[in-house]
User: Fold this.
Amino acid sequence: MAARHPPLIVATAADDAYAHGLSVAMASLAAQADPGRQLIIHVLDGGLSPRAWQRLSRRLPSLHPAVTLRRHDPDLRKLHAFADRGGLGRLCYARLLLADRIDADRVLYIDSDILCRSDPSALFDQDLQGAVLGAVQDTLIRDLGNDLMPLGLPPEQAQDPYFNSGVLLIDLHQWRREQVSERCFSLLDRKSTRL
Assistant:
């Protein structure tokens, strides 16, 4: 019997500082996800303790009957050169490494401090209509504004929407085709102190 839907593929990134948030985020995801659909969770491990990983590995199968947890140990050296702005840690840049680690058409990236209150399948199944990613406009910072103009953006882009990067639906083929990671790392190399 063929599967009704392709797997729901989710990615996140965390270190031990966010281990409890990761546990809550992934538990809420597993509990809300369609139990008839395979759920594959990729974790970019930025320094999780064995205890934190064991807790996550034991808990998720009790919340979803078809969950697979995949741990990735990405090369984080390139992230250490970037500024740790606002105490978020350099791991906030780890989502830029997803296309190199996940062999899939698309992925739903979820920060390790997100609480899922409904099935994320509806979001995962959205038609991106050729866009590289789908995101939601930030509620606090509505547009790029003049603060980002030192990055070399044209003044007319000041009113372009600013999105929250905590939940992203990414078309990994488009991401690779448009070299988004490489372009972001190039910008970070040149302007990291202003981001």
Observations:
- The mean pLDDT is 86.
- The beta strands are 8-14, 39-45, 67-72, 106-110, 133-137, 163-171.
- The longest strand covers residues 163-171.
